[in-house]
Specification:
The chain is 39% helix and 19% strand. The chain has 15 helices and 17 strands. It has helices at 29-38, 55-65, 83-93, 113-124, 169-178, 186-192, 212-221, 225-228, 244-255, 262-271, 279-294, 308-318, 334-343, 356-360, 381-396, and strands spanning 5-10, 19-20, 27-28, 43-50, 74-78, 100-105, 129-135, 142-143, 149-151, 159-161, 165-168, 198-201, 232-237, 258-261, 299-302, 324-331, 372-375. Strands 1, 4, 5, 6, 7, 10, 11 and 12 form an 8-stranded mixed β-sheet that branches. It has a 5-stranded parallel β-sheet with strand order 14-15-13-16-17, with helices on both faces. Strands 2-3 form a two-stranded antiparallel ribbon. The longest helix has 16 residues, at 279-294.
Length: 402
Amino acid sequence: MAAGRGTRLGADRPKALVPIGHGAGAEPLVTHALRGVLSCPDLSDVVVVAPAGSMPELTEAVRRAVPDGSPVPVSVVPGGAERTDSVAEGLRAMPDDVGIVLVHDAARAFTPAAVFERVVAAVRHGHAAVVPAVSVTDTIKVADARDHVVATPDRSTLRAVQTPQGFLRETLDRAHREGHGHATDDAGLVEAMGGAVFLVVGDPRSLKVTGPEDLARVAAWTEPPDVARRPVLLVLGGLPGSGKTTLARAWARHRAAAHVRVDTVEQALVRAGTDQVGPQGYAAAYAVAADQLALGLDVVADSVNPLPETRAAWREAATPSGAVVLEVELTCTAGEHRERVETREADIAGHRLPGWESVVGNDYQPWPESHLTLDTTSRPVEALVAQVEEALRARRAGRCGS
């Protein structure tokens, strides 16, 4: 129908089946994506393109998203070897009377309905190819094969494109007939044949899930409101050089959380004239953390945390706010640990880092009650953040103690 639109939902990678959510309520990524698509008005048909080897699983995931009595027909068809081939299969399965086609990616499972509506409105107003996009905030470098920078584009002219991408049916059909090679998106096929592509405003929630950190981020969006409102106190512990500050900073950036670092507090006390910094630094850090939690902010506590008394005190700091506490112990193999200790440099003015003998002689007591132990040896910090998030989801779901 001339006023209708069809949507092909890209699910041609196994990650479309990755569960997102909590406990028994966890659902595949494609289920979340399709549920969002079906919330859009004026939808006439949906074709989900699935990997040929995952048809039964994808069909079941799709069934979970489609409400009984849905007025919008939803079909599942096998895709091709490449992304372009899969889109072509979806187009062939689309009814002939569909005039506007949206190509969406299951990896962008939480795209708001408003983005779909902006894309469709732009197509209806005369743009044959429309793409949602967001501004690029990072400086981008162009590198050659030897990793030498050859150019720095003006980032004010750059956009990061998202989906759904919208097209007049005849434009997309022609782009696939005349296209050469395998494009990373369908707008690229339109550009290759000399067509114009119009940009509309995208949305940060149209995040493309490509790795563990992305999965952790979108999983947090599915938390029940009563759980999501509770702040988090992430308590890190481990010997100096085990990777606490690296993980603390990465998780704080990921969560926009407060980073309470005992080393920083202790050094500030020293600069203020305190002669002996022992329990005073920890006591100040507990109070700062409690204040941030009371505001509803997530907090990561970064300290050696060597004794049962200090561990109990962190938990007490979380009690008034009702914060969820996750205790994580960091370890590292002896060889890499020693190299870190002996080669790292202080990043706090006036701070004297302990040597290897001091580190191994630390009065650090076993921590069997910690919720998670992470070996940071040769592990990317993004993977560690993802493990923390997964443990946090388990703890909130009641699978990891009280």
